[in-house]
Each structure stands twice: as structure tokens, then as C-alpha cells.
Amino acid sequence: MTPTSRRKRPPKIGLALAGGGPLAAVYEIGVLAALSESIEGLDVNDAAIYVGISAGGIIASALANGITPHQMCRLFIESDVEAADGPALFKPEILLKPAGAELRKRLSMLPGLLATSVFHYARHRRSVFSSFERLKEALPAGVFSGEGIHHYLKSTFARTGGTNDFRKLTRKLVIVATDLDTGEAVRFGEAGWDGVPISLAVQASAAVPGLFPPVEIGGHHFVDGALRKTMHASIALEDGVDMLFCVNAIVPYNARGKDQAKEAGKLSSGGLLDVLSQTLRSILQSRVESGMASYERSHPHVDIFLFQPNQDDAELFFTNIFSYSNRRRMCEQAYQNTRLMLLERRAQLGPKLARHGLRLKLGVLRDTSLTLVEETPSRKALARLGQTLDDLERYLKVAYS
Fold first, then answer.
1. Looking at the DSSP assignment, which residues form a beta bridge with residue 336?
2. What is the β-pairing status of strands 243-247 and 13-17?
3. Beta-carbon neighbour count of residue 399 at 10 Å?
4. φ, ψ dihedrals at 202, nearest 5°
5. Cα end-to-end span (Å), the chain
6. Most C-beta atoms within 10 A of its C-beta, which of 7, 81, 194, 238?
7. Are 324 and 266 in contact (CB under 8 A)?
8. pLDDT tens digits for range 323-364
């Protein structure tokens, strides 16, 4: 397909959103809000295909249901008082509810496993460790319940006029999870797996091993979709997109960056959690870089845009995402950093966007008064008016298409 022929029709746009827990969801909201404001011709609620994993699945499913990034900001970040007939505000604390059923199940197994172990040792007089090894079966597969994600999304889609059925969406949505017993990636939303409720598919995709129990669907047990790939952006490429916007919130922290103070010390001084976090981030980032390089070789005709944090962002690495004030600050930071990146890289990004009939709004990018979370009353009113008009235009487009 030549560039000329591509300009004769609207570009086929794909969005691929990676996981990373509540932090990723907050970061992705900020990035998407900046993109929707700053790129003329881009409607992040009108992509041809959405691919989401874990927290990215939450955001992708909301976008596919017509919920804008600014609306998500109010649901996930802002302190707006909940309306009686509106969607409930998302509370990260719902992720910390104990997995009661799983814990009770494992606890009930303990007496039998203990008796069997004692009998085995008394009969064979072998190693204590060998006889009591079976006690490991009493360890829970996860300590927190992921059902809060399922119930929250199901309720939100119902109360916003959306759908929890992949087949009823006007845009393609793919949520990726991993089949625990085979290690294979499963694409919820595609043929054979499109009858699963969207909210349940997202819960399965977000079931981080050790934290959340595997989610049983149709006799299969599913865990985090990032076990095979970090973003699964290849799904959107296989769908034939012209442009692909990728958002990844998890990058390793560079403690020796140019902006870091010498007295900040090394990450090893932070203990086990900092070491594990940096290790996981480095692994995921390596996979992202490898995937991006592969996609550029296999799909040279597709313009791929990757948005992710700066590696010297200490606040992003050390923040407590369960703190309300931190969530506000992180979302605003993602929004502003994305705006700054678009402005600084306008010479490189502009021609790529122009090939598809899109352009950067330089006036918007240069406007330092714009904010996402910490808004003035006048800007908040204008933003909401603009969102209402955008929603009306989109609904009319769907109604008469």
C-alpha cells in the first residue's frame, strides 16, 4: 500500500496498552489524555482495535466502551463526589481484599496433608523434608482477590451505557491472559473466546501469580497476560493497522541519571522490594525493546509510536500508588511529560502523523497553563464542555453510520 493510497481513507489506528498494576493505569490515563488533546484527528475512543494486558486491559476496555481519558481521570484519580446515578469511583484498595475462597480452600487441606506427611515419615523414616514436602500444596495460589476488578468494570459499563460483551462493541477489543496449564497466550475477544464477559477477561489478565489466584473460565485457569509478552502489540499489527500507539508504564529506574543527587545512594540499599522491582522492570523493558525492533522489521509500512516514562524518574519508581495525592501527581506528571515529549520531538513525529492526515496542535502543546488533574474551575468547565461535544459527535457518527 502506497502512502498516497493510505491518505485517501482514514487511517486504521491501533492502541496497545501494557500492564503494571494501578501505577500503569494512572500513567496510561495521563498519556492518553495528552494524546487526545494534542493530536488533531486522533480520537482514542475510535481506534480500530484495542489490545490490553492487566491494568492496560482496564483502560483498553474503558476506551472501547466510549469512556474518554478525561472521564477515566475523574473515575480513577479525581475526588469528585459520586453521583447517585453515575459510575462509582475506582478505589485501588479493592485490589487488597483477601482471597477468602482460596485461603479457606488451602486451610481446609492442611489437616489432611499434615496427617499424610506424618504417616509417611513414621512409615518410611526418610528425610523430614521429603515427607513433609507435600505441605506446599496448602500454600495459597494468591493472597488477594481480583474479583473487585470484575465487579467494578461490570458495574461501570452498565452505569455508563456501555457493554460487558465483546460481541456488542463497535470496535475490536482484545484482552490477553495466559493459560496456566499450557503457558499459551489466550486472546479474549477473538473467535472462541468472545463469549467471556469483558470484566472477567480483564480480571484473568490481571491475575499476577502469587498475588491473585488464577481465574477459572470454561475449565481453564488463567493468570497475567504479560507472562509471554509485555504488550502483545503484534495482535494489532496482525489486524492490519496503519498506525499503532503503544503505552508502557514500567521501565527500569536509572539511579545514576544526570538529574539524580549523588547522595541518593544505590537501589540495593532499599532492600528486597526495590531490588525485585528493578529486576522485573529491566526484564519487561528488555522485552519491549526487542518487540519494538522486531515490529519495525516485520511491519516497516506501519508507523509505531511508543510512549513510556523517563528512566530517571525517581518519583515514578518510588511512589506509593495507593496514596490518593500520589495518584493525582503521577497522572498529572504523565500528562505533562507526554506533552513535553510531543513538543520536543515534533520534527520527527510531525511528518509521520501527517502521512495519515493527523497533526500536532502546537498551540496546545505550548500552552503551559493546561493541566489534567490540578485544573482551574474555568478549564475544568471548558474541558467538560469539550468532552460532551466530542461524545455527542461520536454518538451521532455511530447512529448514522
1. none
2. parallel
3. 7
4. -65, -40
5. 26
6. 194
7. no
8. 667 888 889 999 999 999 999 999 999 999 999 999 999 999
Compute the C-alpha angle 65/177/335, nearest 5°: 50
Cα gap 152→94, rounded to integer Å: 9
Quote the cell numbers at residue 111. Answer: 489437616
Q: Checking phi first, is residue 157 left (phi over 0); if not, alpha (psi -120 to 50) or beta?
A: alpha
DSSP secondary structure letter of residue 375: -
Which residue is associated with the grid cell 480520537? Answer: 43
Nearest by Cα to 241 from 3, 15, 8: 15
Phi then psi for 16, rounded to 5 degrees? -120, 120
Rounded Cα gap, residues 357 and 204, in angstroms: 37
Which residue from 135, 218, 228, 238 is spatially nearest to 176, judged by alpha carbons? 228
Instruction: Report the Cα 262 to chain-centroid distance in Å.
Output: 33
Query: Which residue blocks in 192-320 are alpha helix, DSSP H?
Result: 198-205, 234-238, 272-298, 314-318
Antiparallel, parallel or unpaired: β 49-52 and 172-179: parallel
Contacts of residues 40-46 at CB distance under 8 Å and 24 or more positions apart, as own/partner, are: 40/358, 40/359, 40/360, 40/361, 41/356, 41/357, 41/358, 41/359, 42/13, 42/358, 43/390, 43/394, 44/15, 44/68, 44/69, 44/245, 45/394, 46/13, 46/171, 46/394
Residue type at 288? V
Which range has the worst mean pLDDT, 23-27, 167-171, 311-315? 311-315
Cell 488464577 -> residue? 214
The model's pTM is 0.83
At residue 393, the pLDDT reads: 56
Measuring CA to CA, how many Å separate 360 from each of 23, 41, 274, 327?
27, 9, 38, 27
Distance CA 156, CA 151 (A): 8
**Which of 90, 205, 92 shows the shortest CA–CA distance to 159?**
90
